[in-house]
Amino acid sequence: RAKELGKNCYEIFNEDIQAGALAHMDIERGLRNALQHDEFELHYQPIINLATKSLAGFEALIRWHHPEKGLLHPASFIPVAEESDLIVEIDRWVLQRSCSELSQWHKALSFQQKLPSVSINISARHLAAGRKLIDDIKDTLKQSGLSPETLIIEITESAIIKSMDTAKTILNQIKGLGVGLHLDDFGEGYSSVNLLKNVPFDAMKIDRAYVTGMKRENPGSRLLRTIVELGHSMDKAVIAEGIEAPGEAELLKSFHCEHGQGFLFSKPIKSEDIGSYMEQFPM
Ligand code: C2E
Ligand code: MG
Ligand code: MG
Ligand code: MG
After folding, report:
1. Could you tell me if 119 and 154 are in contact, meaning their C-beta atoms sit under 8 angstroms apart?
2. From the CB of 258, is ligand 1 less than 6 Å away?
3. Which of 33, 36, 81, 103 would disulfide-bridge 87, Cβ 3.0–4.6 Å?
4. How many whole angstroms separate alpha carbon 121 and alpha carbon 123?
5. Per-residue pLDDT tens for 88-104?
6. What pTM was computed for the model?
7. Shortest-distance ligand to the CA of residue 188
8. What DSSP string runs through the chain?
9. In angstroms, what is the span from residue 10 Cα to ligand 4's centroid?
10. What's the rounded Cα separation, in Å, for the pair 146 and 162?
């Protein structure tokens, strides 16, 4: 184990740090095991057209059925996974699983129904892996028989900034496949207009910090409107995250924000319940 910890091994004398490092290694070991034993599952959160209230698609969000700790949300394990190539394997699992589940739902839909899309989150490290990500996407589309525009890749600004040059090349290649590309969590970190201009995103997702709890009379509502308009001025569609109240949805609709996602419409849904959820949206 000393070898695994490398040169830092001597620096770990403080008990808290040691406990943290051990917990970290525990999670890593657990994640490897989880991949082998199929302990992950995807929940799907609807993305709704604010003007028509119709279903536009779903975002796939990972959950871990930990053998001892129960159902874990991504905040408790994705950051650890992101420190190693484990995240690349997890992302690849998500890609494959979401495409295979989506193609199953498509088969169950009637001909007239518009096919919902599925959005998946790709981490900085997978993006930096470059060519491999493109091959993974190509292979998965082929296996599942899905048309590329039903798949959407979400990337955060911080992931792009971490490896700007590779990122731009890879994102252009993703677009070239016909797959959708959304900028996730806009406004959460260092938001760059330059990035919006130079990367071929189809849409920008506004971080929920700007949305949840927003009222027309709040000073923040002008900022929210400006962000929506910024997206539109760059020809991007806009999706607002974290809509929890009807007033937030109304406000965003009045700003001509196209899509919304949040607990008001639905929490993330287990895949076995997607069929009955979709029945609410007759075409
Ligand atoms: P995200 O991509 O921004 O996903 C949206 C998060 O906001 C989800 O949390 C969702 O459950 C939560 N959310 C949705 N609507 C509301 C709302 O109205 N109010 C509030 N308070 N929260 C809302 P979740 O599922 O815990 O995921 C957290 C983050 O973990 C995601 O943020 C994403 O960055 C990451 N993540 C999730 N699944 C994956 C994955 O498969 N791969 C990777 N690399 N990252 C993932
Ligand atoms: Mg996302
Ligand atoms: Mg987001
Ligand atoms: Mg987020």
Report:
1. yes
2. no
3. 81
4. 7
5. 999 999 999 999 999 99
6. 0.92
7. 4
8. -HHHHGGGGGGTTSHHHHHHHHHHHHHHHHHHHHHHHT-EEEEEEEEEETTT--EEEEEEEEEEEETTTEEE-GGGTHHHHTTSTHHHHHHHHHHHHHHHHHHHHHHHS-TTSPPPEEEEE--HHHHHTTHHHHHHHHHHHHHHT--GGGEEEEEEHHHHHHTHHHHHHHHHHHHHTT-EEEEEEETSS---HHHHHHS--SEEEEPGGGTTT--TTSTHHHHHHHHHHHHHHTT-EEEE----SHHHHHHHHHTT--EE-STTT---EEGGGHHHHHTTS--
9. 36
10. 31
Ligand number nearest to the C-alpha of 82: 1
C-alpha 252 – ligand 1 centre gap (Å):
20
**Whether 109 contacts 115, CB under 8 Å:** yes
Name the token pair of 199: 């990367």
Query: Is residue 132 scored above 70 in pLDDT?
Result: yes
Residue-wise pLDDT tens digits, 40-53: 999 999 999 999 99
Length in residues, the chain = 283
Return the ∠ at Cα 154 (arms to 42 and 80), rounded to 5°: 65
Mean pLDDT of 139-146: 94
- In sequence order, what are the residues at sequence separation of 6 or more whose Cβ sits closer than 8 angstroms to the Cβ of residue 176? none
Q: Is 231 in the pocket of ligand 1 (CB under 6 A)?
A: no
Atom 35 (ligand 1) nearest CA: 74
Are 74 and 62 in contact by the 8 Å Cβ rule? The answer is yes
Does the interface ipTM go beyond 0.90?
yes
